[in-house]
Write a structure and sequence with these properties.
The longest helix is centred in the middle third of the chain and has 21 residues. Helix content is 49%, strand content 0%. The chain has a domain of 55 residues. It is mainly α and 89 residues long. It is extended and about 50 Å long.
Length: 89
């Protein structure tokens, strides 16, 4: 099998995510209704679980939409010693 661009999802992850794909699908940034509140609560719970797992503060955990956004964010926030200019695409 070729896992170069993706990998199969762990069934435990799928089980944990499924309710939020089917029943609780609100935007966690929409704070004017219950769907948004439920999603925001779930996101903050997940953020704390990840932080606890790796010994971090939940405020240090950032969720992104995927690899490209993650890579770009990493490049943009990593200081590059000795460089006065940096081009990012």
């Amino acid at each position: 099998m070729d896992f170069q661009a993706t990998t199969p999802m762990d069934p435990r992850v799928l089980d944990a995510m499924l309710p939020y794909q089917v029943n609780y699908y609100g935007n966690p940034h929409s704070r004017t209704h219950a769907y948004g509140w439920e999603s925001e609560t779930a996101m903050e719970k997940a953020r704390k679980q990840v932080a606890d797992l790796i010994g971090a503060d939940p405020r240090e955990i950032v969720f992104t939409s995927g690899a490209t956004e993650s890579n770009n964010m990493s490049i943009k926030v990593t200081p590059i010693a000795g460089l006065r200019q940096c081009v990012m695409t």
